[in-house]
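Figure 6 in text form: structure in, sequence out.
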């Protein structure tokens, strides 16, 4: 049962982590971290991401302008860039390490201890990648909520709202943490090796033979 259970858990973990890594990369470059609806002009929707601000018109057109300076960005966007890059890098490294540590991979079949270490490091990197993906989107969401309910801003001033990229980032972080947990759960499950089974059977047979010799008259 364990021989079938572990490869399935490992494949599930790495596939879920791969999905989370793709979503994390997508979150990094999506311009919809914040949305702004103008009441005076409902035909336009302004969006802001980590790299550019865009204007979406009702006719279907979209115009974007890249940010001129990194230092001119708000603090949450500057830190979010760094954390998302770190999340993408650690997720990619986790995919490489855990991929070589899979039991279904024929490479390194005689080096089970090294493959277990690769799975462990890969799972830990997925955890780090998931956390560093959740932190920036949560920070931007928190600052958006604070600005939205700020009483010092007049009511006629438009307020920024949550963008679609925030929800994609939360889903990415959840998938990365879940995938890393599935990989590490396979290491916690105990697997009985055939050599230990044969040794236990042989020892039990020796004990039976000793009892038979002792009971003979």
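Output sequence:
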């Amino acid at each position: 049962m364990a021989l079938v259970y572990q490869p399935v858990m490992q494949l599930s973990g790495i596939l879920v982590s791969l999905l989370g890594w793709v979503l994390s990369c997508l979150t990094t470059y999506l311009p919809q971290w914040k949305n702004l609806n103008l009441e005076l002009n409902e035909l336009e929707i302004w969006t802001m991401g980590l790299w550019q601000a865009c204007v979406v018109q009702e006719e279907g057109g979209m115009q974007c302008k890249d940010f001129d300076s990194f230092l001119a960005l708000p603090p949450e966007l500057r830190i979010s860039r760094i954390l998302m890059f770190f999340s993408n890098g650690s997720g990619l490294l986790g995919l490489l390490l855990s991929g070589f540590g899979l039991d279904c991979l024929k490479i390194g079949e005689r080096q089970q201890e090294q493959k277990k270490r690769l799975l462990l490091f890969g799972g830990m990197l997925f955890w780090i990648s998931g956390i560093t993906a959740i932190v920036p989107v949560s920070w931007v969401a928190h600052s958006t909520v604070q600005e939205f309910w700020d009483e010092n801003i007049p009511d006629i001033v438009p307020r920024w709202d949550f963008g679609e990229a925030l929800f994609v980032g939360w889903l990415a972080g959840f998938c990365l943490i879940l995938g890393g947990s599935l990989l590490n759960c396979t290491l916690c499950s105990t697997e009985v090796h055939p050599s230990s089974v044969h040794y236990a059977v042989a020892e039990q047979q020796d004990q039976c033979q000793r009892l038979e010799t002792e009971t003979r008259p």
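Caption detail: The beta strands are 34-37, 44-48, 52-57, 62-66, 160-162.
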